[in-house]
Specification:
two-stranded antiparallel ribbon, 9 strands, seven-stranded antiparallel β-sheet, alpha+beta, 5 helices
Amino acid sequence: MNTPKPTSPAPGAPKSRFERKANAAAAKAPPVRIADNKKALFNYHIEDRYEAGMVLQGWEVKAVRLGKVQLTDGYVVVRDGELYLIGCQINPIRSTSTHVTAEAARTKKLLLNKDEIRRLIGKVEQKGFTLVPLNLHWKNGRVKCDIALAKGKAEHDKRDTVKEREGKREVERTLKIHRS
């Protein structure tokens, strides 16, 4: 009798069904947020969103893991056909940045495809468009930055945003009272 030989899985492939489930769950997991720029959604109308990689130094990655990041004053500029994040504060940790002169507000390079960068440059040169960082998050073990092509809001638009927010809170309060 010829019995079929069990085939061994390919190198690097999950061996058991438990490993396959764990890998599938990890692939479906949403990116872990590091920092949000809440001011951006208040001050700008968001047109398009892009996800860019970031060039970071070792001490910056360790500080990001501990959540020592502030993104509210950050903005994105285009220099020589490349994108740079300015104003993102990554506060150094004393124990990890002893051998390096750590600069908290260092300009960080953003990584995108050339076509996406060309498209963004074309839009930014149009009147009223700017590039704003929305958040930092982990994706596949790397720090990513969501940037947005945005137009500035006028003062009356900001007031409308505040009115909508207060109206939603009021509705939630009344619903909460009536449920009790």
